[in-house]
Amino acid sequence: MKQNNKGNKHGKKFMDKKNKTKQKNMDSLEKNIKKNASDNSTVKFVHAGQEKMSGKKRLGKEVKKPMTKEEGQLLLNKVSIDSYKPNPNAKVRIIPLGGLDQIGMNITLIEDDDDIVIVDCGTSFPDDELLGIDLVIPDFTYLKENVDKIRGIVITHGHEDHIGGVPYLLREMHLPVYATKLALALIKHKLEEQGMTENDYELHQANFGDVVRLGNIYVEYIKTNHSIVDSAALAIYTKAGIVFHTGDFKVDYTPVFGDAIDLRRYASLGAKGVLAVLSDSTNAIKPGFTMSERVVGQTFEQIFSEHKDSRIIVATFASNVDRVRQVLDKAIKYGRKVAIEGRSMVQTIDLASQLGYIDLPANAIVDSELLKAYTDEQTVIITTGSQGESMAALSRMANGSHKKISIKPSDVIVLSSTPIPGNEKSVAKVINELSRKHATIIMHETHVSGHACAEEIKLIYSLLSPTFAVPMHGEYRHRKEAASLAVSCGVRGENALIIENGDVLELSAETAELKGSVTNGKVFVDGLGIGDVGSVVLRDRQALSQNGIIIASMVVDTRSRRILSGPNLTSRGFIYVKESIDLIDECRDLVIDVFNKCASMPGKELDIKKLQIEIRMELGQFLWKRIKRQPMILPLIMELEG
Ligand SMILES: [Zn+2]
Ligand SMILES: [Zn+2]
After folding, report:
1. Which residue of the set 252, 280, 411, 526 is catalytic?
2. Which fold has domain 294-442?
3. 341: nearest Cα among 300, 298, 375, 371
4. Which helix or strand (DSSP H or E) is residue 430 part of?
5. Do domains 294-442 and 534-640 have the same CATH topology?
6. Could you tell me the distance, in angstroms and rounded to a whole number, from the CA of residue 409 to the centre of ligand 2?
7. pLDDT, tens only, 150-200
8. In what order do the strands lie in the sheet containing 379-383?
9. What's this model's pTM, rounded to 2 decimal places?
């Protein structure tokens, strides 16, 4: 197992909590900047990132010493970067370790000669081929090799495809994590779920307008809109120029919660000069504008008023706090009780209400167990599973394996999120199962994406007018379209760059060069193990799921080379034994033949290993010839000395 618990071993606090709080005092800011200008060794200043990384220092006394206020000041005010000027000869490298071959597992490195900053560290969900794999996380090899340069992780927002990998990375190395309030709470929850305590991690809240200093790279948090509150875009100030990371975004002038995207800041950065924009491309191939989340409220209003006599089940992303909030509002308005289904949904709603993002009147929520006490028209169920995830609550309701809720023909089921590319098949499957139960399914209209369509992407490129465009967050086709949108907004054709995971893109004020690629890929997380499920295990699981298994068991005497009992052939998931007695008989005869063949081979004793291999091979060939199937074949041979 590749698992490494470095992060847990040193139970030391690296940061005085009080020191990490943001300070907006201009005097001390100036002092800091001066201090840094004169002192190139940023070790003290960037405590969080640097000292912990090198093993020696980590154990040294230096770190235990509480930091002074100045040293601990990692969050600066926006003012501090007003004097920022890029160096025309400097270079910055952009290295996506994930997120470019699919939607999911986003992680991008911003690197110069001295420092690396990690933007997001997400997971993706395994596709159907990856049986029994719970999660897919990025390959951290390159990060482990360059651990001394990494100054920290900056998070754009709290979606799984951006934060899911953080606990796994923190097990490998100790790094400070910066995120806005909700994302930070979600990360903290994850870390604690994995048994990590406050000594093992270092989390900092960043507010909009804050600038995080990470080595000589500064990261400014800028308000954007997306389907989860507190989403940020990042202006990353490197020596070579500003790299603007849009995060996942849409332009919502009338969001349900909080402020609209800070377009003024985008414009002023554009005026300052932006080197490169790394943009969300998810919806680039959709023309026009994404509707405001507020529109969803109107649709729900209609659904609730038209289906007053039915139970309403709404499936959406657990993390779409705004959407959940709107359903809750309508439920309360129409006097319905709400039951929440799905572990991640329960957790998110819990956290969001603790942080004040959702107002939950005490009597509005009921436990699913108690739903029976109410009539259908008095209840709403909010559930996970809108992406057809096979283990999610909605899938279990659809296929009848949910313990508490079974679908009735009178149910109205609202699928309130469009399938993410790649999930279409699983979603269709769930819809089929729900339709078979004669429930009413509402799919359209309710969906308002959290991602920008073409016109919004153009707006952002127009405001920022970067030298380079590097589309992110999407499959090739999405990124290609985003690149041409950037070109239509004035980015030069040769400067709209489509790169792949692992590519090292080096930019300077005038040049863009691909400098090879670094190790990247997917690591499978299976239960608690990380990376211990190799392709062989996966192949076995696949064979099992598709073709079943045949077990050939017998007891043999190796000395006298005789079969003492058996062979018995058992099959699972392969053929109906009753209907194929003949076939099984033939298999048994074949196993006996193979045994006899092996028994007549020279040698002191019967070679069990050889026998197993032969049975597997011969039986495999026989079954393939007869029925064109390749079940897994498991010879179970017990030795008894006669
Ligand atoms: Zn997102
Ligand atoms: Zn995303």
Report:
1. 280
2. Rossmann fold (3.40.50)
3. 371
4. helix 424-436
5. no
6. 35
7. 999 999 999 989 999 999 999 889 999 999 999 999 999 989 988 888 888
8. 337-341, 379-383, 312-315, 412-415, 440-442
9. 0.71
